[in-house]
Amino acid sequence: MANRVLVGDHDSLGYGIYVSKPGKDVRSATGIDLIFNSETAYGAGSLHQITDITCASSGTYSGTAAISGLAYIPFVHISEYDNNGVQSIPSFWGRSSGGGSGGGGCLLTGAMIKHPLGETPIEDVREGQKIIGYDTENEKEIETYIVNKSKHLVNSYYKVNDLKITFNHPIWTEKGWACIDPLAYYAECQKYSHVPIVAPKKLELGDLLFNGKVEEIERVNKTAQVWSIGVANTHNYFSNGVLVHNTMNGAAGGRSQIKWSGWRATVTSSQIEIRPWLNSGANQNYMYDHIGIIHDKASGLGWPSAVYTSGKTFRCFVYRIPADG
Questions:
Q1: Which of 1.10.1760, 1.10.1060, 2.60.40, 1.10.10 would CATH assign to domain 46-92+257-320?
Q2: Nearest to residue 218, comparing CAs of 167, 290, 280, 271?
Q3: Which tens digits make up the pLDDT trace of 248-306?
Q4: Using CA atoms, how far apart are residues 271 and 316, in angstroms rounded to an integer?
């Protein structure tokens, strides 16, 4: 049996749009029997405005529309619309390399990794290779091995003496593990759903390392290739004479799988903007985050690009839902 719909004055609830459960009379149904009520303060709310946005066919391939008369950010439903009616929203699954390497930070290309036969640049070490770690409880060097390795790009890094690292990378000092920005370490743990296994303090000038004092902490605003390795047992290793932590608990660098659509929208209390995913640059990258990391996308996958908004029209339904509802 079909649902019953009323557009008009409900017997007890006033004017609006109502949909009842099958077999129920929408004109006299109770609130429990109604499955849609445009006048409720929750969920549906009242329809405030319907507006169309046609995106540009060149330049930024974006389009905007004004929202009037609201003091809060509303709920907005957006659908692509043309002469054939409402169209589907294209979406895609993709992967990014290095996405699972959170929690331990990274080292730049050229960092020397200590192993039983000497040292090797981090970009040349391999999974399964024996390296030297440190037993912090018994205070002695021990052999361990690399369990995984990954790489990605960062748009800035730090120089700690002659070691080049990301600012969330813990290194061993006389006061225990420390990093340039401990909050960034915890933020990355949360981002990748890792449980923090160290509690880093803030790294400061004068802190004692294995190879001397911290004499320099300098930020470098430059895009660079960085590497993460996971280490068995000790979860640490030596680089340029400094004991550094590995990726979170040896977590796989691998690739993270994500989903993105052919376009994206931002909504404020006064405007709707629709724009495409253009490329993997800052503010365009679906994996761009607050700590400035741009992860590589897996080979063979393309970005949705501007074709998904170029010249297209999107119908936007703005709902008036009270801010306290």
A1: 2.60.40
A2: 167
A3: 544 444 444 555 667 888 888 899 999 886 544 433 434 333 333 334 444 444 555 66
A4: 11
